[in-house]
Model the fold of this input.
Amino acid sequence: MARVTVLTNPLSGHGNAPHAAERAITRFQQRGIDVCAIVGTDAEHASRLVDKALEAGTDALVVVGGDGVISLALQALATGDVPLGIVPAGTGNDHAREYRLPTGDPAAAADIVADGHIETVDLGRIEDRSGAVKWFGTVMAAGFDSLVSDRTNRMRWPHGRMRYNLAMVAELSKLRLLPFQLSFDGGPEIDTELTLAAFGNTRSYGGGMRICPDADHSDGLLDVTMVTSASRAKLIRLFPTVFKGTHTHLDEVSTRRATTVSVDSPGINAYADGDFAAPLPVTVSAVPRALKILVPR
Done:
């Protein structure tokens, strides 16, 4: 590594990302690495800055923040040759968890980038009905959890985790099975009713919820977890087991693996890497070896 571009989301980690970026940049400079630091005023501006940095040439794009800003970087890096480096500074940090990256220690994360050990991994690819494509690194989800995210995004108060918690309580009060249509690897369309469906390139989302506990980011497959429960009590009891990954043993949960899945549910949105991805229907796929990422040796 001779030159890296550092992209910071100043809002990540409740505003702690700029401090983490300073520590990482200092460490890069100590290691003799030239740093180009960029901070976007919004997602669109950040994307333009990333594109310009890639055009100018860089040995790595290093993201300081959480899964949301990593998602922004993935749109530019997917299927390319420039590797992704991560200095975790978000609230969920599911990419960091998957790739064994240190949280709370920006200098140590910078050292991993500087050491230059690259792993080539899969990405998820979402294509909506218009043909628009969005890449993701962790999990795409649709159903109850995306309804909670929809409601959270509509709320203006309170701030932080409490807003999400209130949105979850509101959606639990309206809990119902949702009609889904699924087709796995071009097979026949399956009509079913689900509480939620999650499509994992990696194991966790939502800050360590191991919704797809056996997912492998290098097997060329998506792990699909489907939950069927219209009982609020059962769903509440299920949540703690998701953090351990033991929910897949419950009667209300079924799993499959596939390279490509077509999925639809009227009025439901898909979220990936914690952010809005597209309204259903979509086709979601695992794309082998689509990303180069800097990881510990």
